[in-house]
Amino acid sequence: MKEFRKPSAEELKQKLDPVQFQVTQKNGTERAFQNKYWDNKAEGIYVDVVSGEPLFSSLDKFDSGTGWPSFTKPLEQKNLLTHRDESHGMARVEVRSKGADSHLGHLFDDGPKPTGQRYCMNSASLRFIPKEQLEAEGYGQYKALFATETSKAGLEKAVLAGGCFWGVEELLRQQPGVKQTVVGYTGGYSENPTYETVKTGVTGHAESIEVTFDPAKTSYEEILKFFFKLHDPTTANRQGNDVGTQYRSAVFYTNDAQKQTAEKVKALVEKSGQWKKPIVTEILPAQKFYPAEDYHQDYLQKHPQGYTCHYVRPLEF
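Predicted structure:
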């Protein structure tokens, strides 16, 4: 079993930056909305930055509107201690890690159901471990949490890029068997991309959509055939008036079976002659998918008259 301990004073000086030291060792508080994890939507777990004790899961994280990462419950209750805190002229419940005695944040009774609790934590007290790295970092016992509800329910995912994600999402969401759509960014080389950075083209990410579908009602092949009808796969880095690498056409496969299907469908589309120019759609291994900001999700549902350059072409492959 992994040992979680508080490092020596000398080790702490080398391990922690000034903000981390002030928060974890001096009971400090970082600035709201200007910290690392308040808006992190990636899947994984959060551990004590000092000792590595597992503390919280992304599955229990929610947007509290406070500007700090908030959770409805701990990942491991045994790794947390609570104390009455009467500093700053108020009575609060302080939360600390058990092994390292790090100050983490405070616990409030104004969270969402079912717990009604809000663990309001400092990003500086935490280290995030993405689900893809759990095994390598010694937290493999938590991988099952993210084998997720999709696989448990027999659902599958497709990750596609075909220009502005508003229009792609709106058309795909209407297809039989599609259970959920999430727009976001993938295929780049910077961490935690935002719309403001992606739109410059410097991050390498493409505006993408993650489609969760029921393979009993549709297939990955059918999803891809429809995808090739709703955008122009012959234009490199452009869809309609949207120009840039972030608007490229790409299929991000998650396993060898998806890769083979994507290559098969691309060849069918090319052979059909329905498009007069060569197909330039990239077929690439899936990379980390970053959900886009909330205002981009279901955009054309919220703004029915909003901009889109996508429509379904009457093609047969």
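Summary: Helices lie at 9-15, 18-26, 149-152, 165-172, 195-198, 220-230, 256-272, 299-302.
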